[in-house]
Amino acid sequence: xxxxxxxxxxxxxxALADDTSRKIYRHRLLYSLLNDEEEIxxxxxxxxxxxxxxxxxxxxxxxxxxxxDWLTRYxxxxxxxIDKNKTGTLNGLRVISLDDFLKxxxxxxxxxxxxxGKSDLRHEIALDIE
Length: 130
Prior knowledge:
alpha/beta
């Protein structure tokens, strides 16, 4: 395996203007070198403006498809997954219906991360949750 030019990497790193950019760069390098997909999840949790909310125990995902399948393999912050068509479990997380979620007494306290990629579905989901 050919290693990258470390001097060049240091130049790029030192040219970055802020801490967030440096964190993203570090995680991206680790991902590239080690092929560790957890580094991509760490970028989201450490570098997002929403990171304090993401660390909350009141996090759930909406959509039990491909996006949630990938995310739940590397992230364990969510309490469960909401899905209109599926129930059961996905990578050890419980999948519940939207109706069951809305019956929870604390449902308004959850940060819902939508894992659905299609914009028309995201709009429909936003309407369902409101």
